[in-house]
Amino acid sequence: SAASDVYKRQIGNNIKNARMKKLYTQEMLAEKVELSCKYISRLEMGMTGIRLETLAKICNALEVSIDEILK
After folding, report:
1. Which of 2, 5, 6, 50 is most enclosed, with most CB atoms within 10 A?
2. How many angstroms separate the CA atoms of 38 and 65, rounded?
């Protein structure tokens, strides 16, 4: 749905901003959370959904709360 697309883009954008604050490349983040660089890229562009476990891993690597990413 359109609403879920907007939400995915927002989450992706928040992940990207948190990653850039840490000065991590997509490659560095992908390595830390054992995911592909392609997945991180698609996630940041809002082209894919994210499971809670994966979100928790990413938040942990970026040292941000899940709340910060979901807002």
Report:
1. 50
2. 23
Q: Would the pLDDT of 2 be above 90?
A: no
Q: How far apart are CA 43 and CA 54, in angstroms?
A: 11
Largest CA distance in the chain: 33
Question: What is the CA angle 26-57-33, rounded to 5?
Answer: 45
Token code pair at residue 29: 């983040």
- pLDDT tens for 3-42 read 899 999 999 999 999 999 999 999 999 999 999 999 999 9
Place of tokens 């941000």: 64
* Neighbour count for residue 23 (Cβ, 10 Å): 7
pTM of this prediction?
Answer: 0.94
